[in-house]
Every structure is written in structure tokens, then in C-alpha cells.
């Protein structure tokens, strides 16, 4: 099902790419792309890594933990960057999130 | 994150193409997206149709197997997205099969449709086949005007229904609204309609005046005041609905001082394939007489046609230019505007597009458009295979 739109990314959110945004490696041009309705976005290396970690299970905090450990970098700075990148994607309409079912 | 594709200012109903903003086109790399006009058949008769005035009849259309071969070839050479368009693409009985073939080949598939022939079952089949996105054209917000513009009874009601099914099937929806003098007053309601339909994108596309639309210019040309209001409304709505509704905006170039960089420059970032299999630098290119376009039915590959064919190379770059383009400081910015418009209005595609203030014809054409916009003409010449039918006096 379609996830919610117009989301506000925080440490607790569990973002995922919606069905209509596809992360793909473009063999011809040797770059990662996000295919979206009538758009092709060019994510940078970090964005690709973050999006690959956003599997609907992990929240943004988990992603920041993993990246902080991997790059031995300050978690706060990473968290800020990750949220900014994901919010930018959300504002363009290419990000949704998994929410707990409410009655 | 950078966006490498956006919208070039293109024509009319249900036609949206992509353009690289930071182009690698100096090497004429294969375009990221290709428009497939799989048929010219369409139940609608919009007077601004982007199809050529000389339509391909169904007997000339590529077969299912030919289109499948084209799709495989496009994926192989590096195309990432295809737009199934027309005419009305759902008029082809093999559309589900073609979408499935494209998806299996790894292509991102967009459907650009008038929606009036779709059933819920058919839309479900398309979704199951891997369709990624649906774009539905709207001619207005209420059926009186919308059905009159389309020349098709009950079309508007059907479109609303199909838009609802699209979202129920979890497919992203684009509302394509083609704007002109007779419906620009409905723009605020069109924006609201897009929100109510839970659309992701809205294309506010002012008519571009060649082909059918040029024949109907006097009935369609907006006034300067209308256009200014339109721009203001789009800007406000973009801000108000950020993150909820993306709005793409195409202005009519008659009222601009600089011409549009049509198609991102001829043969630089775009091609489309006509129902009969011609590989074209622009959907209107066949209106330019004297150019020979190669077909996917020829012995040449699509990549070869893109790189080497005479038609693609004729207006590539700047070498073909005459004055005032030839020495103009903007020549690599707009590439002299639109070749089809230059041909339609001056008789020579190598002339400067009269939309440009530096064209000797600009003043004359601008004044004429202004006069037409203030005029009384509102009757349409409807698009059809018979060369057009004039709307009856009392509207029909």
C-alpha cells in the first residue's frame, strides 16, 4: 500500500522509497539513479548508501548509528546530514515512511 | 541530490518529455527517456492536439513484435524511462503486453493517457504488468467545458473515475492540464481538483502553437493578463503545497522575449518514435517538409539513427544557423528556439524562431497573437483523421 506523504523526517521515522521511486544502477552511465515519474534523480554516494540502509525496518537513528560506526565520525553531524537529505527527497515527493498501524 | 531531468517547455495534451539540465549532450549520449507514440488513434478531438496534422493511420502502426523489439533495444542502449503515449495508447489492444515487456527489460514506464477508454480491470492489469506512473489529461474542471474542448461526451466524468482508481491501485498520478484562453479561469479549481484526486504532480501546460493548435490559435491564445495571473497562481500553489503536489509549468512562448530551448536543443536530449516507427527529434518534426526521417523498420539501429541520421544532424549544434542566431550570444543557450515553429511561421526551419525578440518577425507575430487573444473567435477546429472538423455554431 501507499505510505503516507508529506512526511517530516526525524530520528524515529522509518523512511523508505515509495513504489514509484526506484533506486537503480545505470550500467550505461555507470551512476546510481532514482527513477521517478518523469524524473531521474542523481543521488550522490552517501545518499545511495543511506537509501540502501532505509529498508523500512531501520529508523533514521539506526542508520546514523551504522554510518557513525562505519566512518568513525560524530553521530550528531551524520544524523543532521541524513535528515536533511531525506527531507529534501520527501519534499520532492519521493519518500514515504512505515508507520505503526493505528486503530 | 541533484535533479538531472526536468521539463523542457513542450507542447500540449499529455505530452511530457524529459531534459537533462546538466547535459552530457555534447557527445549526444543516448537520451534518458524516450516518448513512444504507439498510435495516433484517439477518441478525443482536442483542438490543440500535439500530433501532426497528417496522422498515421492504424494500418501503418508498428506491430506488437516490432514495438517489443524497439523496447528491448532502447533498454540495451541505455534509455531508462519510456512514455507510452499517442494518440491514445490504450487504443492499442497490446498495451499490457508492451508495458510488461518494457518492465521486464528494466525500463521505468509512464502511461500518458486521456483515460476515457480505461476500465478498472485494464488499469489493474497494467499495474500488475509493472506500470510505474499514470498521467491523465484534463481539459477543465467541469464537464461542460472539458467535454466541449475534448469533443467527447462524458469524458470528464470518466477521467475523474480513472484518476480515483489510479490512486486506489497505489500508482502515482499526474494531472496534465492543458491551458488556454477558454479554460485559464479554471486554474484555481484545477489545482484544488488535483489535490482532491490525491495527485502527486500537476502539469500546467499552456498550449504551444504549432500543428493543430496553430490552426486554432485565435480560439486558444490567452491574453497577457491571463498569463500573468496564471504564473502568480502557479507560484503561490507551489509554495502552499510543497511536498504534497509538484507543479510543472509550461508558458506559451509567444509572450516571451527569449525563445524556449525546444527539446533541449534539436537532437541533443530527446527523441520520440511515431506510430509508424519513425525516429523523430521532436513529436512535431514531421511538419517540417524536406526532412527524411529514418524508421526503426530500416536496417539501421536506433543508436545509429540518433547519432548519424541526416535529420538529427541537420539542426544539431550551431553550424546550421543563419543571422541573427549565428553570432548571437544566446545561441548555445536556446539553440535558436523551436525549429518546427520557425518552419510553421517563416517557412524555413533554419530561421530564428519568431518567439525570439531578435527575430525580425517577432513584433508582427506578437501583435497578431495579442489581437487574436482579444478577439471574439471561440469556435474550435477539432482534430481528426479527416483533417479537422469545425465546431458547430452553438458548440458541439
From TrEMBL, chain B:
SMART domains: Elp3. Pathway: Cofactor biosynthesis; pyrroloquinoline quinone biosynthesis. It catalyses: [PQQ precursor protein] + S-adenosyl-L-methionine = E-Y cross-linked-[PQQ precursor protein] + 5'-deoxyadenosine + L-methionine + H(+). The keyword Glycosyltransferase does not apply. The keyword Metal-binding applies. Residues 28-244 form the Radical SAM core domain. Its cofactor is [4Fe-4S] cluster. Keywords: 4Fe-4S, Iron, Iron-sulfur, Metal-binding, Oxidoreductase, PQQ biosynthesis, S-adenosyl-L-methionine. GO terms for molecular function: 4 iron, 4 sulfur cluster binding; cyclase activity; iron ion binding; oxidoreductase activity; S-adenosyl-L-methionine binding. Binds 1 [4Fe-4S] cluster. The cluster is coordinated with 3 cysteines and an exchangeable S-adenosyl-L-methionine. GO terms for biological process: molybdopterin cofactor biosynthetic process; pyrroloquinoline quinone biosynthetic process. It comes from the Bacteria. SUPFAM superfamilies: Radical SAM enzymes (SSF102114). [4Fe-4S] cluster binds at residues 42, 46, 49. Its EC number is 1.21.98.4. InterPro entries: 4Fe4S-binding_SPASM_dom, Aldolase_TIM, Elp3/MiaA/NifB-like_rSAM, MoaA_NifB_PqqE_Fe-S-bd_CS, PQQ_synth_PqqE_bac, PqqE-like, Radical_SAM_PqqE_MftC-like, rSAM. Interacts with PqqD. The interaction is necessary for activity of PqqE. Belongs to the radical SAM superfamily. PqqE family. HAMAP family: PqqE. Catalyzes the cross-linking of a glutamate residue and a tyrosine residue in the PqqA protein as part of the biosynthesis of pyrroloquinoline quinone (PQQ). This is PqqA peptide cyclase. It comes from Bradyrhizobium stylosanthis.
Amino acid at each position: 500500500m501507499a505510505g503516507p506523504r508529506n512526511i517530516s523526517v526525524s530520528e524515529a521515522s522509518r523512511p523508505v522509497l515509495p513504489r514509484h521511486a526506484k533506486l537503480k544502477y545505470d550500467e550505461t552511465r555507470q551512476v546510481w539513479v532514482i527513477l521517478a515519474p518523469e524524473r531521474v534523480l542523481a543521488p550522490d554516494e552517501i545518499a545511495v548508501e543511506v537509501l540502501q540502509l532505509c529498508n523500512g525496518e531501520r529508523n533514521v537513528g539506526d542508520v546514523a548509528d551504522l554510518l557513525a560506526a562505519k566512518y568513525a565520525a560524530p553521530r550528531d553531524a551524520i544524523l543532521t546530514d541524513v535528515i536533511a537529505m531525506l527531507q529534501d527527497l520527501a519534499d520532492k515527493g519521493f519518500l514515504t515512511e512505515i508507520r505503526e498501524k493505528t486503530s | 541530490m541533484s535533479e538531472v531531468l526536468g521539463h523542457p517547455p513542450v507542447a500540449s495534451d499529455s505530452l511530457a518529455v524529459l531534459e537533462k539540465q546538466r547535459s552530457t549532450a555534447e557527445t549526444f549520449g543516448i537520451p534518458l527517456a524516450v516518448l513512444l507514440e504507439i498510435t495516433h488513434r484517439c477518441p478525443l478531438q482536442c483542438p490543440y492536439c500535439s500530433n501532426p496534422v497528417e496522422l498515421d493511420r492504424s494500418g501503418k502502426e508498428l506491430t506488437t513484435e516490432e514495438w517489443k523489439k524497439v523496447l528491448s533495444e532502447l533498454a540495451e542502449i541505455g534509455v531508462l524511462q519510456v512514455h507510452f503515449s499517442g494518440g491514445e495508447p490504450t487504443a492499442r489492444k497490446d498495451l499490457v503486453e508492451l508495458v510488461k515487456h518494457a518492465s521486464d527489460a528494466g525500463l521505468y514506464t509512464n502511461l500518458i493517457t486521456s483515460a476515457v477508454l480505461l476500465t478498472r480491470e485494464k488499469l489493474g492489469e497494467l499495474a500488475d504488468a509493472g506500470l510505474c506512473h499514470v498521467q491523465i489529461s484534463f481539459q477543465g474542471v467541469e464537464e461542460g467545458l472539458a467535454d466541449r474542448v475534448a469533443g467527447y461526451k462524458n469524458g470528464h466524468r470518466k477521467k475523474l473515475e480513472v484518476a480515483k482508481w489510479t490512486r486506489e491501485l497505489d500508482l502515482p498520478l499526474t494531472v496534465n492540464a492543458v491551458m488556454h484562453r477558454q479554460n485559464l479561469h479554471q486554474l484555481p479549481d484545477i489545482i484544488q481538483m488535483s489535490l482532491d484526486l490525491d495527485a502527486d504532480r500537476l502539469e500546467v501546460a499552456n498550449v504551444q502553437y504549432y500543428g493543430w493548435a496553430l490552426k486554432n490559435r485565435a480560439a486558444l491564445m490567452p491574453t497577457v493578463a491571463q498569463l500573468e495571473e496564471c504564473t502568480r497562481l502557479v507560484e503561490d500553489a507551489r509554495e502552499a503545497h510543497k511536498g504534497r503536489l509538484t507543479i510543472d509549468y509550461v508558458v506559451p512562448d509567444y509572450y516571451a522575449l527569449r525563445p524556449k530551448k525546444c527539446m533541449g536543443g534539436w537532437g541533443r536530449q530527446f527523441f520520440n518514435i511515431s506510430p509508424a516507427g519513425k525516429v523523430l527529434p521532436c513529436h512535431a518534426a514531421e511538419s517540417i517538409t524536406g526532412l527524411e526521417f529514418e524508421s526503426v523498420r530500416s536496417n539501421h539501429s536506433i543508436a545509429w539513427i540518433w547519432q548519424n541520421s541526416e535529420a538529427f544532424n541537420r539542426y544539431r549544434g550551431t553550424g546550421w544557423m543563419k543571422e541573427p542566431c549565428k553570432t548571437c550570444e544566446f545561441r548555445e543557450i536556446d539553440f535558436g528556439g523551436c525549429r518546427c515553429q520557425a518552419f510553421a511561421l517563416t517557412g524555413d526551419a533554419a530561421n530564428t524562431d519568431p518567439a525570439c525578440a531578435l527575430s525580425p518577425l517577432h513584433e508582427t507575430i506578437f501583435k497578431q497573437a495579442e489581437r487574436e487573444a482579444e478577439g471574439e473567435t471561440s469556435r474550435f477546429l477539432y482534430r481528426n483523421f479527416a483533417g479537422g472538423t469545425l465546431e458547430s455554431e452553438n458548440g458541439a
